Amino acid sequence: AQQRRGYHEKVLDHYNNPRNVGSMQKTDQDVGTGLVGAPACGDVMKLQIRVNKDSGRIDDVVFKTFGCGSAIASSSYLTELVRGMTLDEAGKIKNTDVAKELCLPPVKLHCSMLAEDAIKSAIANYYTKNPNTRATNLSGT
Ligand code: FES
Ligand code: FES
């Protein structure tokens, strides 16, 4: 179809069936919330992670994206990627990892940047709420 031109099928798959759309209680102690915007276009992405205190891993992750198809696909893919990761692992994800998986064209790279910004922001928010967790992680336990 005409409007599909230029979108890779993986983008369309995530766009048509976005994974893990939803919202968590922002005030929960074990939830980190990232809310970021793309200056280039004004699109907005909210990403939330629930962290298991004992394992230090992301137990659950949800998103809401008000943006283009590539931004929605990027956040959907990101939620699949980070589930089960430690915060350190998730913090190392690069937008290029997302862009490569979804075959985003150069003009859509900032859409995947939104996903990288969102997970980093969610992790930072979690550490702000749980400063002791960070100390534990750094000491390698
Ligand atoms: Fe607004 Fe992407 S430019 S939807
Ligand atoms: Fe702006 Fe995709 S996030 S065009």
Description:
With 141 residues, the protein is α+β, with helices and mostly antiparallel strands. The protein contains 6 helices and 3 strands, in the order αβββααααα. It has helices spanning 9-16, 69-82, 87-91, 95-102, 109-129, 131-138, and strands at residues 31-37, 44-51, 58-66. The protein has a 3-stranded antiparallel beta sheet with strand order 1-2-3. Strand 1 (31-37) and strand 2 (44-51) form a beta hairpin. The longest helix has 21 residues, at 109-129. The radius of gyration is 15 Å and the shape is elongated. The model has no long low-confidence stretch (mean pLDDT 90). Bound molecules: FE2/S2 (inorganic) cluster (2 copies). One FE2/S2 (inorganic) cluster binds at residues 41, 43, 67-68. One FE2/S2 (inorganic) cluster (FES) is lined by residues 41, 43, 67-68. Pathway: Cofactor biosynthesis; iron-sulfur cluster biosynthesis. GO terms for molecular function: 2 iron, 2 sulfur cluster binding; iron ion binding. Scaffold protein for the de novo synthesis of iron-sulfur (Fe-S) clusters within mitochondria, which is required for maturation of both mitochondrial and cytoplasmic [2Fe-2S] and [4Fe-4S] proteins. One of its GO terms (cellular component) is mitochondrial matrix. Keywords: 2Fe-2S, Iron, Iron-sulfur, Metal-binding, Mitochondrion, Transit peptide.
